[in-house]
């Protein structure tokens, strides 16, 4: 009997996929643990439910449609119910807040804004969500997918599915001249995420310390993982398929992605370290500077490289908690 229970606990434990990475630092990220739990199914109820700073778990039984970014308060968990946690338009915002968990949501087609904006905030776990738009509208019609700027810290982005987007995903670090605010910040872990049909920024980072492991990148047109302006990235156990430039530390920002110069801008280079073997799939890296960010303060288990693609494709996105 004891043996049976033990095995059951072990197998449940594996299925649950506990939080890990940098979100476990600085006291950890508990979200709404210990607070009230509500289930909402309208945009208005959702916006009201997520706003306060007191601990709460909000289950979203959507779909809902937002007309502006919905702001999330401190100590909040937002969890989609089954495959219904769908948010179209508007997007989500975390600004000067902490201790927030976002899981099992689909955020799509946020015109003129990020799907999720995180600024001046810490201890955030973004897990098992799907972010998508389309690539029919050019570079800036939709903004980023998960943009993390202005001195954020202690964040884990895991098991998300990012697809069909131009300027995907994360920009980390607001601007190249934001050193005073950003230096020493942005400890962020990305693991077991799946990117597909993306233009660039998977992620692009400035000043950050990013640990990127066991992610799958497919059909990334230009710069993939891009460390610029003194950012340091540790890249290991990732799989790249049809990705022209998997890892770059060269400070050049491609013209499409350049805020200033139509010919592209130059920022200072970043730094990259390659840890456990990656599969670059024939893509050509441009690693101009090796960094000194070669280990992280938390423990983690790498998925064997040969299993990464199948495992991540099967386990990222919604309905997989
Ligand atoms: C919410 O969190 C932020 C960031 O940690 C903090 O500055 C603010 O005081 C908190 N607000 C409340 C009401 O606890
Ligand atoms: C709520 O959040 C604030 C700011 O992050 C934090 O100081 C406080 O401990 C949290 N409260 C609970 C009950 O988690
Ligand atoms: C490779 O990716 C590009 C987008 O970056 C896409 O246009 C092209 O069709 C892909 N090639 C294959 C063989 O999938
Ligand atoms: C790689 O970086 C060097 C600078 O060290 C630059 O001259 C070169 O053009 C870059 N290559 C690509 C393909 O961007
Ligand atoms: C790591 O490299 C950065 C960038 O060159 C440098 O500022 C920092 O002092 C280095 N840290 C150590 C411990 O060598």
Structure summary:
Keywords: Lyase. This is Polysaccharide lyase family 1 protein. The protein has 321 residues and is mainly beta.
Number of strands: 26
Rg measurement, Å: 19 Å
User: What is the CATH superfamily label?
Assistant: Single-stranded right-handed beta-helix, Pectin lyase-like
Order of helices and strands: HEHEEEEEEEEEEEEEEEHEEEEEEEEEEH
Percentage of residues in strands: 35-45%
Largest sheet: 10 strands, parallel
- The CATH topology name reads Pectate Lyase C-like
Class computed from helices, strands and strand pairing: mainly beta
What gap, in angstroms, lies between the N and C termini?
Answer: 27 Å
CATH architectural grouping = 3 Solenoid
Summed up, the domain count is 1
Residues in helices, as a percent range: 10-25%
Unreliable runs, pLDDT <50, ≥5 residues?
1-15
Figure out the total of helices. Answer: 4
Keywords: Lyase
Protein name: Polysaccharide lyase family 1 protein
Organism: Pluteus cervinus
How would you describe this structure in keywords?
single chain; 321 residues; mainly beta; Pectate Lyase C-like; 10-stranded parallel β-sheet; 4 helices; 26 strands; 12% helix; globular; disordered N terminus; binds 2-acetamido-2-deoxy-beta-D-glucopyranose
């Amino acid at each position: 009997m004891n043996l049976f229970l033990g095995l059951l606990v072990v197998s449940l434990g594996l299925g649950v996929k506990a939080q890990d990475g940098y979100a476990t630092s600085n006291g950890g990220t508990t979200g709404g643990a210990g607070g009230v739990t509500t289930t909402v199914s309208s945009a208005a109820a959702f916006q009201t439910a997520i706003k306060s700073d007191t601990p709460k778990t909000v289950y979203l039984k959507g779909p809902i449609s937002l007309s502006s970014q919905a702001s999330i308060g401190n100590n909040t968990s937002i969890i989609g119910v089954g495959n219904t946690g769908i948010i179209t338009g508007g997007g989500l915002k975390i600004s000067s807040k902490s201790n927030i968990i976002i899981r099992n949501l689909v955020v799509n087609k946020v015109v003129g804004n990020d799907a999720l904006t995180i600024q001046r905030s810490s201890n955030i776990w973004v897990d098992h969500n799907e972010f998508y738009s389309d690539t029919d509208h050019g570079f800036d019609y939709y903004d980023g997918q998960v943009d993390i700027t202005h001195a954020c810290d202690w964040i884990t982005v895991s098991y998300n599915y990012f697809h069909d987007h131009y300027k995907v995903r994360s920009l980390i670090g607001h601007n190249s001249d934001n050193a005073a605010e950003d230096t020493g910040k942005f400890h962020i872990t990305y693991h077991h995420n799946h990117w597909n049909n993306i233009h660039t920024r998977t992620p692009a980072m400035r000043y950050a310390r990013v640990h990127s492991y066991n992610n799958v990148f497919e059909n990334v047109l230009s710069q993939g993982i891009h460390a610029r302006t003194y950012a340091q990235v540790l890249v290991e156990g990732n799989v790249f398929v049809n990705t022209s430039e998997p890892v770059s530390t060269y400070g050049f920002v491609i013209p499409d992605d350049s805020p200033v110069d139509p010919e592209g801008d130059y920022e200072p280079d970043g730094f990259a370290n390659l840890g456990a073997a990656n599969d670059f799939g024939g893509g050509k890296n441009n690693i101009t500077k090796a960094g000194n960010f070669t280990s992280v303060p938390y423990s983690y288990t790498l998925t064997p490289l040969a299993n990464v693609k199948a495992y991540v494709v099967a386990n990222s996105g919604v309905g997989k908690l």
